[in-house]
Amino acid sequence: MVEEMEERGLGGEEIEFLRTSYREYYYRAASSMWIPRRLEAREVGFLTFDGGHRRHLHFSSPGELIAEILREIPWGVFYSVSLYEDPGNPEMERKGWVGADLVFDIDVKDLHPACIEEHDFYLCNDGSVHRLAERPMGCRRVDWVCPMCVDAGRKEVLKLLDVLQRDMGIRPDAISVYFSGHRGFHVHVEDENLMDMGREARAQIVDYLMLNSYNPGFLEGFLRTTEDGLETLAGWPWRIADVLRQRYGVPPTLRALEALTRGEVEAAISSAVRDVAVHVDPQVTMDLSRIFRMPTSLNEKTGMMKQRCADVMACDPLKDAVAIGDYPIKVEISYAPKLQIGGYTYGPYKRTALKLPAFVAAFLVSKGVAKVIK
Amino acid sequence: MSFGAEELGDLPFIQEAGELLVRKGYGLSMDELVENWSEPFVAAGVKRARDAVMEGRVDESLNGMAPEQRILSFVVAALVVRTTGNQYAIKRFALAEAKRLEERVFQRIRSNRYDAAVLLSAIYSRILGMSLERVDRTIGPERFEVNLGLRDYLSLSSSLDASKWGIVNRVVDGGRVYMKLEDAARLLRSGIADRIERRVSSMEIPSPPAPIAEAAAKLSEEVVKTRPPPAAAAVSVSREQYPPCIRSILKRLEAGENLPHSARFLLATFMVNIGMPTDDVIALFSRSPDFNERVTRYQVEHIAGLRGGKRYSVPACPKLVAQGLCARDDTCDDIRNPISYLRRRPTGTGGGGNGRTRPGRRRDRISEDEL
Lengths: 374, 371
Prior knowledge:
The complex is a heterodimer of chains A (374) and B (371). By secondary structure, chain A is an alpha+beta fold. Chain A is built from 14 helices and 18 strands. Chain A has helices spanning 2-7, 12-29, 62-72, 115-119, 147-167, 199-210, 216-223, 227-230, 235-248, 254-260, 265-276, 282-286, 317-320, 358-366; strands at residues 44-47, 53-57, 76-80, 82-84, 97-100, 102-107, 121-123, 129-131, 140-142, 175-179, 184-189, 291-293, 307-308, 328-336, 339-341, 344-346, 349-357, 370-372. A four-stranded antiparallel β-sheet of chain A has the order 2-1-3-12, with no helix packed on it. In chain A, strand 15 (339-341) and strand 16 (344-346) form a beta hairpin. The longest helix of chain A has 21 residues, at 147-167. Chain A is globular, with a radius of gyration of 23 Å. With 371 residues, chain B is mainly alpha-helical. Chain B has two domains: 5-223, Transcription Elongation Factor S-II, Chain A (Up-down Bundle), CATH 1.20.930; 239-343, DNA Cyclobutane Dipyrimidine Photolyase, subunit A, domain 3 (Orthogonal Bundle), CATH 1.10.579. Helix content of chain B is 54%, strand content 6%. Chain B has helices spanning 5-8, 15-23, 30-35, 40-55, 67-84, 87-111, 113-128, 150-157, 162-165, 181-201, 210-226, 244-254, 261-273, 278-285, 293-303, 317-323, 338-343; strands spanning 132-139, 142-149, 172-173, 176-179. Chain A binds chain B through residues 55, 92-93, 97, 166-170, 193-194, 197-208, 210-215, 218, 221-225, 229-230, 232-237, 282-283, 286-289, and chain B through 138-142, 149-151, 154-155, 157-158, 162-164, 166-176, 178, 260, 321-324, 364-366, 368, 370-371. Chain B: It holds the Pfam family DNA_primase_lrg_N. Chain B: It comes from Conexivisphaera calida. Chain B: Heterodimer of a small subunit (PriS) and a large subunit (PriL).
């Protein structure tokens, strides 16, 4: 992490600015911080401004946790998705695992929206900027975020919610959706019935969502029916049939598909599978020793907070997740694509010095593309 | 439903079976058992223990005995197996008994599907504490007769072949997994085996009567003689040099766990590809409680390309991640396949390697076998 800070060009001025902004936010938000339920059974971890990690922290009450956040002013705050008998024990195998929330991470990068090629870039030590396709050696990749990224993530979240609710029968009130504060979404499921699932069961759930090891014959078999029969489908066979119906404009019985695809039914199904599969990061769901970013804490990659999206269709995270104040800060920017946060558009900038609201400055500084000018 | 005497004869490990014995005038004390040592159920029980542990099955001639005789023979068999004190023998016994129950349920399905559905549902709820709902639901061309909660389904299906039993190849709707009766009967096996194993392991026999001790000693001897020792690590690769995913699977195998199909496939392809002789690979699996040499040999030889001609390669890391088998730690660097782990590490040294390792990262990760 220390290397990463140096790589991002975070010197003393930048860290002091970020730390001051974070302190101001955490003092203001102290009374409304989100606290994990059963905090006393969770491990808490901090990423600190000196570049270190403090793991295996343990708090018996929300007040203690908030007090420590205010004392430390961490760069990142994380909590274990797992519950333990002895969460403060530094040895994982001695913590005494008792169960874990079911969590999903949707990273927009994995969804490959077209905007990524447009706004992500490489920044080299000599200050030169390169497009992704150029893949220059020894340069640092800078990930950007825009409303299109958010929409791609939002679409994937809706697919995930549909499967969780309709197929897996998880009650909507057990599911919470969060914008990660960078360019992803986190979906938390708190269902007592699913808490004790081990790694293998979670791997099965991921496999279901991503349709990784689906058997083509299984899906095809369900289309071996009449038009009325198609109406009775459920789960993936239903979604696949729905996509095929839209694509070919007729009820996709196997007989109809064979005629329409000239015998290429399997290819048609696998293309439909690519459409409906939900892309989550498998490791995040399966890794029971992971510590996960805490909602309402600030994301060190942007200075924005991990923010609840109560209504996935309507939430506007690039506006709502802004947490740092808007007092003016003078920065020198090496390069920044257009940035839309807090309800306004900033940039693009190239080799320029100007005053910007602190939350914009914090974003640019965190990305390592701007320096604070005293 | 409450189980009738006929059903209890096939569910000898549940409490009601013991109650049936009392109703039929059998005492359950050890002394009374020894007094009846010349009765047919005793010989049948000793044979039952031996068949289960050594052959992996229970003799069908038991089916002709009266229910209480069948239960008594189970009690004798369980006492003998428990007295061996050999956990492997207990696991083998439990698995063979679970298979026997499964076969009895299949017979019931063939003769009367309605009755079988009622019986299955009762077994799920009374023995496993799971709710197997009877339904009549047509989904496309298929008709489903039962469904089981997702969580319960996952806990029972984990050791089965994912291409058939993985939830991605099942209809999952409203938190329930839909099945035909045959699948529900097959799915019972691991859950029932677990219950029997726990039941037998928890039996306290402070001083086993002589006839039981003798039968147990004989069985023990046979087990030790035929159970192969842990396979000597083959080729020039020592176990410490295996990648973490392989070490984790070996550890689970040695703990007597019934591994999922995907884990077995990984282990077999890895060992075949590092040049372990087929017989040694088969010997590795012989420590698995559900070991069947014929089937294992067929599968391993298939993987090795001795049958069918195609030699299977080791699944790549992303696939293992998806299957929940990846136990990546900081020694893995950025390898894409477990087999590459060996190529990038100098032989004979435990760590360090070629300077690309990054010690200290991700050291808090725990592997699944610790859970």
